Amino acid sequence: MPDLELSVIGDSFAEGRGGLVRPDGSFAGFTTHLAQCLGVSGEVLNLGSYGATTQDVVDHQLATALARPAALTGVIVGGNDLVTDYDRARFRRNLTYIFSSLARPGRLVFTTNWPRIPDRLPGLPDAVRSTLRERFAEANEFLDGLVLDLGLVCLDLANAPVTADPVMWCPDGMHPSAAGHQVIGTALADLVDEARSALI
């Protein structure tokens, strides 16, 4: 049986920012915990990068992920679009392209929806916070449709009670803390393991 491989693409959430920092400067984020929980024996490739938008993933990460035979592929991206670079049509088009390109026989694709980031961002005027809340809610509704249509595995961070715990998040309100990455990695592993068992 070939070694189980894992690929992750996306933004700094995918990169693991907020997790423990390794000697080489990389982050031990949720991907690290996910791989440990699943007993991933092959290569773990994490292309997540700080500031990446859905367009960045389309332009710079997706082709690499598609070229690899990894049976498990994670996609965590969109927060930067929603907060700083939002174009609804482009956002939806890119997400649809990313997930539909990856969702092929033999590959299990997992993601998370967007947690309540607008509630935690410090120093926002009320009107801006309200706009962001609406934007994030709309994005999660759109992602729900992709999950159903394409058979994706999705961890519901928008409604999980544990995500309300401040210990889960860095002071910037955007990134999970080291503890948060561990919780997310473990929860994703449970969902992925369940989905893989259903396919056997």
Automatic annotation (TrEMBL):
Which SUPFAM superfamilies does the entry mention?
Answer: SGNH hydrolase
Gene3D superfamilies, alphabetically? SGNH hydrolase
Q: Name one Pfam family in it.
A: Lipase_GDSL_2
InterPro entries from the UniProt entry: SGNH_hydro, SGNH_hydro_sf
The record places domain SGNH hydrolase-type esterase at 8-183
Say which domain of life the source belongs to. Answer: Bacteria
Put simply, this protein is called GDSL-type esterase/lipase family protein
* Organism, as annotated: Amycolatopsis rhabdoformis
